[in-house]
Amino acid sequence: MASSKFIVSQERRVDMSDPIDEIFEALARERSGGVVSLHLAWSAALKKLATSEMDAEHIEILAATCRAPRDVELVASLFGATGNAEMMLGEATQDSSYPVGDILQGVLGLCRHLDRDRRKTTLKMAIGFVRCCEESMATYPGLDTLAQVVDQMLEEHGFEG
User: Fold this and answer.
1) Is 66 exposed, middle or buried (0-12, 13-18, 19+ CB in 10 A)?
2) CA gap 140, 153 in Å, rounded
3) Long-range CB contacts (< 8 A, 24+ apart) of 68-71?
4) Sign of the CA dihedral 149, 135, 76, 86?
5) Which one of 4, 66, 152, 153 is CB 3.0 to 4.6 Å from 71, fit for a cystine?
6) Residue 104 has pLDDT above 50, yes or no
7) What is the rounded distance in angstroms from the CA atom of residue 124 to the CA atom of residue 16?
8) Integer Cα distance of 21 and 8 in angstroms
9) pLDDT averaged over the chain?
């Protein structure tokens, strides 16, 4: 997908000629499994994500990373509060051996953990924590993914930030 800037306003309406709206509608249908109330929840959450000032490629990666409408709300809130989210993700992936999707899975795992206690963090802190977990991968040879290491480190050490 092209990385042209995809900036939308709060007044944005769904326009099915817009590729991101088509992608989000298909994702909402797929994730809802035909359950109307779940489809509405997915659609509402994805519309919030579409209002972020990120390019379409990053928005699509974020949406695909989420497993529940609440996940979408968490990342939309975190990334919406950060004016330079794309730059921060670019720097994180440039210095990482993991692709952006794996880093986002780790960030989302941290957000879920914090959400259980009604806590929040900044994108900078979340990426920093995930990068710390990446540096600790060798300590956890039985875990296969960065997201699993994030979950394990949260369980063992918690998060102050």
Assistant:
1) buried
2) 10
3) 69/38, 69/41, 69/42, 69/44, 69/45, 70/45, 70/115, 71/108, 71/111, 71/112
4) negative
5) 66
6) yes
7) 34
8) 12
9) 86
Tokens coding 143: 């875990």
CA-wise closest residue to 149 among 118, 115, 105, 88: 105
Distance CA 29, CA 77 (A): 23
Q: Which of 140, 139, 72, 65 is nearest to 103 (CA)?
A: 65
Confidence band, pLDDT 50/70/90 cuts, at residue 127: very high
Is the distance from CB of 24 to CB of 47 less than 8 angstroms?
yes
Binning pLDDT at 50, 70 and 90, where does residue 55 land?
confident
Q: What is the chain's length?
A: 161
The beta strand positions in the chain, using DSSP E, are: none
Express each pLDDT in 61-84 by its tens digit: 888 889 999 999 999 999 888 888
